[in-house]
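Researcher: Batch entry, complex prediction.
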Amino acid sequence: MENNVGIVQTQYLEVKEPLTLESGKVLPEYTVAYENYGELNENCDNAILVLHALTGDAHAAGKQSETDKKVGWWNDMIGPHKAFDTNKYFVVASNMLGGCSGTTGPSSFKPQSNERYGLDFPVITIEDTIKVQKKLLDFLGVKKVIVAGGSMGGMQALEWSITYSDMVSACVIIASTSKLSAQSIAFNAIGRNAILSDPNFNQGKYYDAQTQPERGLAIARMVGHVTYLCEDAMQNKFARRFQDKEKPDFDFNIDFEVESYLEYQGQTFVDRFDANSYLYITKAVDLYDAAQKYGSLENALKKTNAKFLLMSFTSDWLFPTVQSKEIVSALVKAKKDVSFCEIESPCGHDAFLLEFETQTKIIKSFLGVNGGNNE
Amino acid sequence: MNKEYGQSQGLRLNYSIITDVVEVGAKVIDLGCGDGTLLAKLIAEKKVKGIGVEIDQESVISSLEKGLSVIQGDIDEGLKEFQDQEFDWVILNQTLQSTEKPDYVVDEMLRVGKKAVVSFPNFAYWKVRFYLFFMGKMPKSKILPFEWYNTPNIHLLTVNDFYDFCKKRNIKILKSVYMTRANVRKNFLIRSLSNFFAEEVIFVISR
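Model: Structure tokens for the complex:
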């Protein structure tokens, strides 16, 4: 355990003031679930905010009890001497707005009520989610921050560097994009349709019911998993092998290993995730376009003061290299300090959670001895 | 650029010559920047705003460790990330001969930059000629250490070739520096003599 952050507890910040959302709607109050590792220094400028992907949570590193078998989702990257070195940095992770792991979302109770939000929860955007994260960092006393995230977390990191340009000293964007392609929106739409058309969905009011929209959520997750892998990765993992049998059964139950894998992924997801949250978060991701308010990505990035590191993976077709390069190109045009690496990997989009050795080397050399200010 | 040459005196001289031509505060891109030594020198001595492009990941990491901005990429695929005339200087140091499409690479350099520095080993250097003449084998030297089958130098050229190339493509040669065994040579009035005696050459070019 010496390379790990040890036993951690998720904490909760209650914000008793309204948050005006991009949609114009107002959230009267909210809770933010967060964890932090390492110590904030005297100047309050050694913070790293790590931003989770679609279905992540505030538990980014360490274990929550001695007997806990699982570690946080980015444990390979956060800890003493790791990419985000907790001996040097004060690392903060939080569950995003709209999530279902402690931060206010559709499964939360409405204020002073014993009714849950469900679909009464307002549609949120990436911009809204970072406002909540900013509130948390202000509460923790952070003055300067390095932001880092993969996939949707990378979108949030990008938006942080634009919206809070005075606060962000460095920005690490991994396997991400400034806007989803039509293809990626399409996959999210299939996922949402699976949930919305589940007979147990009941307009999002399923929390107190006997039955949950489990099938819809599981199918959404299956589609997601296909996009997180790639053809080679699936071929290597499953090929055309049958699951626990020599020949097909000539029915519509599971024949192939790949079917069994998807079924398993779908089922385990249902146990930890809320169907309404899946709708809200995928919608937020679909709506995000960093350039929209500024006319062009270059204009959006003009006001940033961070130095940027972008990384993509060769086999990632969900957030392909070309989308990272678009951001790189806009940063170069905007005369910003930017570095980019395309990492060779057979793991598809999932690579950003798996290829931690290469990422560690690159992030460490980018952050340098003085953190985000090694010029 | 090969590693053995990378640590030699010749390269230190090459770096000084390039550092001398670049103005203070210029915007510079170094193509095939390797471990970033030249770019770091340009930033330290000339306060340039610099960025590197490098294909090899380990070299990219070495450059990052020096605090440099570096973009991993293959210059043979062009410089699409960069706009027309974005840089004051584009540097292609000891790399032209190992590109797949040298003509395209030079076009791209002069598209994104106002002036370019191009250096390469001169294949018409007398020792190279004698090696081929007497040994009957592909020449090897400190600056060309590879075997014919594993050399990255797939487009070796001579001083005269480069002059012809520039003439055909309306590229101006603003300056030429000839080097032999880690020393700068005086330019001969007759170019063929420079072509014969120069082991390595550095050109400054523009449109």
